[in-house]
């Protein structure tokens, strides 16, 4: 009985991974900019980017990491930029780890996640599984995330599209977007 249950869980995880991968289009003739070996699974709902030494939450705010399925559950929350800053400051300050707290990443840190060989989404799905579960998720505003970087020539904030890898900018109160948190590694 236990073997059957374990087999069923394993199959469902593999099928979920294949379903997510089928949502993504990749070019075989381009080298990967964010290959699987670049990310170390920390077995706690985070991954360490071995190139930048940043630790990323694998799920957007509002989603929770499911260790059994190795996926993000739930729907991402959306916030204005000011609300996102407030939520991060209020709920994700964790001084217990050498003063390293979760924060909103700057635009360069977000762009470093972009997988240039893939689109829809332009993100490593092994490192960030479950952010896109179905085709409609690609076009949701909660799959575009706020950065901590203001636009140089306007009073707007730079954002990063997880689906297309594009940077755009919006006024801090104009739209509600998703949030992906990061903290400094070693």
UniProtKB/TrEMBL annotation:
Signal peptide: 1-21
Residue ranges crossing the lipid bilayer per the database entry: none
InterPro entries reported for this sequence: Lcl_C (IPR011460)
Keywords assigned: Signal
Cross-referenced PROSITE patterns: PROKAR_LIPOPROTEIN
Signal recorded as keyword: yes
Keyword Signal belongs to the record: yes
Domain Lcl C-terminal: start-end pairs: 45-165
Name the UniProt record assigns to this protein: DUF1566 domain-containing protein
Organism: Photobacterium atrarenae
